DNA sequence: AATTGCTACAACCGCTTCTAA
DNA sequence: CTTAGAAGCGGTTGTAGCAAT
């Protein structure tokens, strides 16, 4: 009967300041662990599980509150592409961030992007976009911002997270590879021109490496010099005008126009089963 | 000013894994 | 070896705060 009454008294929902203080005081004295007895000892009508969660996700002194930084964003995307939804494992690589926070970040920001692109966040299609489009852009932004901060204000270059670009690339060689391949927009165009003559698109796709980026410029898209025609979501190369059926079908373009706004270096990303526009 | 919709995040739930008796 | 309780993990829900209408 007492047990039943006790269970009915168990509090749920948001923690009050008073509860937080009780929990912190008790942990200061007795340390972490033994959460059930700690909850009782602190005079909290909470489950040990609830106390642990509150401490781990909110009260711990080494928790970093506030927005996810660009560097952290890069790490999360890269590590998720490698490990999937292993939130606690990913969190271990981001000092001060909790698995809950990273999970929330993923759900609110990343899944939103997937939704906008009409694809499943766990699909290969979306993983490719993250890996070959989103990540390289982020890495570039991290570089740009760290360069700017080292030039302007060397003293603030060290952000609150202790991962600099070199550490990051050592930690994630695959991402370094993606960055190199994704952002240096050559010499693939020449390769394509060589390979393209007299072949069909299927054959081209079969020959071109999974990650291929072409840059150029035209009136609508200044970086697409080689691309002088754009109709119905299809890019045509000049030499394809006679047979427009061989154009690149860029369905992603229609679904994500926002990616093009202000996009500096457009390109085409080819992989095994789809062709993507790279902003 | 009121309402609605959206976002971010804290917290809960159910399940699995770990550990000590 | 078995088992019960604790701890850990990932999925999901609830809600406060804000912006748009």
Automatic annotation (TrEMBL):
CDD domains: SANT (cd00167). It is found in: Nucleus. One of its GO terms (cellular component) is nucleus. Pfam families: Myb_DNA-binding. Residues 7-59, 60-110 form the Myb-like domain. SMART domains: SANT (SM00717). Residues 7-63, 64-114 form the HTH myb-type domain. SUPFAM superfamilies: Homeodomain-like. GO terms for molecular function: DNA binding. InterPro entries: EOBI/EOBII-like_plant, Homeodomain-like_sf, Myb_dom, SANT/Myb. Its main location: nucleus. Keywords: DNA-binding, Nucleus, Repeat, Transcription, Transcription regulation. This is Uncharacterized protein.
């Amino acid at each position: 009967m007492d047990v039943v009454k006790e269970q009915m008294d168990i509090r749920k929902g948001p923690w009050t300041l008073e509860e937080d203080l009780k929990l912190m005081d008790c942990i200061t004295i007795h340390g972490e662990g033994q959460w059930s007895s700690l909850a009782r000892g602190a005079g909290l009508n909470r489950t040990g599980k609830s106390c642990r969660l509150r401490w781990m996700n909110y009260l711990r002194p080494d928790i970093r509150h506030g927005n996810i930084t660009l560097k952290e964003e890069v790490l999360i995307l890269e590590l998720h592409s490698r490990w999937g939804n292993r939130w606690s494992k990913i969190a271990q690589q981001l000092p001060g961030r909790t698995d809950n926070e990273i999970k929330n970040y993923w759900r609110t920001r990343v899944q939103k992007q997937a939704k906008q692109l009409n694809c499943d966040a766990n699909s290969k299609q979306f993983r490719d976009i993250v890996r070959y489009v989103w990540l390289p852009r982020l890495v570039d932004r991290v570089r740009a911002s760290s360069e700017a901060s080292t030039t302007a204000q060397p003293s603030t270059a060290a952000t609150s997270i202790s991962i600099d670009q070199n550490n990051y690339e050592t930690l994630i060689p695959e991402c370094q590879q993606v960055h190199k391949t994704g952002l240096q927009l050559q010499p693939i165009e020449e390769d394509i021109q060589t390979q393209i003559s007299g072949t069909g698109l299927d054959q081209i796709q079969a020959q071109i490496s999974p990650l291929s980026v072409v840059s150029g410029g035209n009136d609508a898209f200044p970086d697409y010099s080689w691309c002088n025609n754009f109709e119905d979501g299809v890019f045509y190369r000049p030499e394809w005008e006679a047979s427009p059926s061989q154009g690149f079908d860029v369905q992603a373009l229609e679904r994500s126009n926002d990616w093009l706004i202000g996009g500096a270096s457009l390109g085409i990303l080819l992989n095994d089963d789809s062709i993507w526009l790279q902003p």
